[in-house]
Amino acid sequence: MVEDGKVLSNIISSQVFHEQYGGVVPELASRAHQKLIVPIIKQALGKADVEKGELDGVAATYGPGLIGSLLVGLNFGKAMAYGLGIPFVGVNHMEAHIFSNFLRDGSTKGKNTQPKFPFICLTVSGGHTQLIYVKKPFEYTMLGQTIDDAAGEAFDKVAKMLGLGYPGGPKIDKLAQEGDKTFVSFPRSYLSENSFDFSFSGLKTSVLYYLKKIGFSAKASSARTEDRQLLVNICASFQAAVVEVLVDKTIRAAEKYNVKDITIAGGVSANSSLRKDMGEEAAAKGFRLHIPKFEYCTDNGAMIAMVGWMKLKEYPYNSFDFELGPAPNLAL
Ligand code: KG4
Ligand code: ZN
Known about the structure:
Number of helices: 11
Shape: globular
Helix content: 40-55%
Strand content: 5-15%
Order of helices and strands: EEHEHEHEEEHHHHHEHEHH
Strand order of the largest sheet: 7-6-5-8-9
Bound molecules: 5'-O-[(R)-(carboxyoxy)(hydroxy)phosphoryl]adenosine, zinc ion
């Protein structure tokens, strides 16, 4: 729940039961949404100390994402707004990640460091990798995106090969901190020289071939000390290959489009190496980097409420027409 850009509550129901299946099971996710949506909304109102009659609008994601879960949220949001006689705003999930940096109390550097327009945003999540020129609110140019796996997806798939479970990003991140990133030189995919697109499936395959070549066994690695050292070194080497390309392309985009501010967003922006390397590189080149607080990097309700509030301020929305599935290029 957000008031004038300030977070009053941000309740997240983590669906930990997916871990046992090694990934999100869409049908189970939508059933859990259905079961949890009322108690979660009650909790959000309670924590914010707000009565539902005091709300000015309701926002929900209309995509992109898993259709079953989206249907639950979208229809519940519309019904709630209709019942309360207040506007409903549908929010593009990727657009919400961009504005997670605008949540007051959202930036790691305090409330006065909101990004200045225009800026470059790197959105890296489980489903997307997008490099976006943000001219002003709701005016974007997509500079590049992944042509195959998303950055988070690569982390999750490599973690699975290493027997680390789901979600893989945080697990690789933690192990990589003990490892040597120069241990294996995995390929960095830049595509063509000036391209702002990304590709991570080749990297994923080369990790797979490497593991086959050395006969790596995920099971043995938990038992033997020397295997654990190998594991942390592989994590660090893989992570370095992802982070290097993300940082290089983002900085190059900031230079080309002559902006002063850079933001990162989405689940992978929680990655400690990405945060550190992007921070150092941006500082060296004279850019200001804005990174969301950890809890606003991964999916959260506050960022959806934020964009809902920004849109309600800008336009006299009262539309129940939002349908599932926005254009993936943020053309709204
Ligand atoms: O934005 P998000 O919560 O959900 C989507 O919209 O997809 O991103 C989830 C993704 C997962 O792939 C997860 O492994 C990755 O973000 N992730 C990380 C880290 N924390 C989450 N990847 C690398 N390092 C992390 N610390
Ligand atoms: Zn997301």
